[in-house]
Amino acid sequence: MKKSVILLLFAIFCIQLGEATHFRPWLGPDLQPIATGKYTVQKYEWVDIDNHATRFCSFDNFVNLGAYIPYAPYSLEIEVNTASTTTNAYGWNDAIVTGRYQLMDDVSGENYVSAVAGASISKARPKFVRDINTFHHGTWEYSLHGAIGKEVPCGPTWGQRAWGLFGLGWANEGSLWMAAHAEYERNACDRYWYGAFLTGLFGFGDQILVIDTFAGYGPINHHSLDLGGYFAYSFWESGVIKVKYSFRVWAENYPAYVNLATIEFQFPFGTGI
Q1: Buried b (16+ CB within 10 A) or exposed e, 102-134
Q2: Is 251:224 a contact under the CB 8 Å cutoff?
Q3: Model pTM above 0.85
Q4: 59-73, 125-139, 230-244: which has the minimum mean pLDDT?
Q5: Where are the beta strands (DSSP E) in 50-156?
Q6: Please, which pLDDT band fits residue 8 given cuts at 50, 70 and 90?
Q7: Within 10 Å of residue 54's Cβ, how many Cβ atoms?
Q8: DSSP letter (8 states) at residue 230
Q9: Among 10, 127, 135, 212, which one is most buried in terms of CB atoms within 10 A?
């Protein structure tokens, strides 16, 4: 059964990477910086340990601040994440820098699909590496990722699109991990848009999770699958507000039945070129 589920996921997908990071295979207008602020609440009551549910209640809060700027075919993003969890008081969690390069662009009409390749590097605070409520394999983490997608145009903008992401990460300790994401979105004249997504995270460690001696996900053989959706509303030049919810439908050696709710603000500077 376990092998069948993993094979199904490979068929569905084409991270946990930085949650606020721009991973869609479309960069946006050149030289239009975007500032992002996000607040996330995480709540769960169970942790899966070697396919057995163990009672462990947690209510956690995360605040993210980021800055993103594209200049085709490149983009650069810097983000800082803070957290307050059942295990640790509020404080700095990690910082992430991401660079991407656009390989193909379907918006220009030169290619049938859009594709982007990128890399991220992050520095995490040691106490949050040892926190079961935050995902870290080590204090220094690196990842390579690629996204591919297709837009269906609707007048001067897009009407619907589908895209997928695949990433591979490693850290200064522990084992590799893999992240995958698939998403479908619809757009209403750039005034509002909405979508549904499926996200998977898989660690290649050889140990089961032990709550009392937890020191990071690096050595853990963990797996998870989250299903969710979002709604975003645009205030035109004044920015975008976005609400998102996901539920963890499958977990092994990882927090289970997790509810994640997010409210996000995106503020563009100028109109780009």
Answers
A1: bbbbbeeeeeeebbbebebebebbebbbebbbb
A2: yes
A3: yes
A4: 230-244
A5: 52-71, 74-84, 91-104, 114-124, 140-154
A6: very low
A7: 12
A8: E
A9: 135
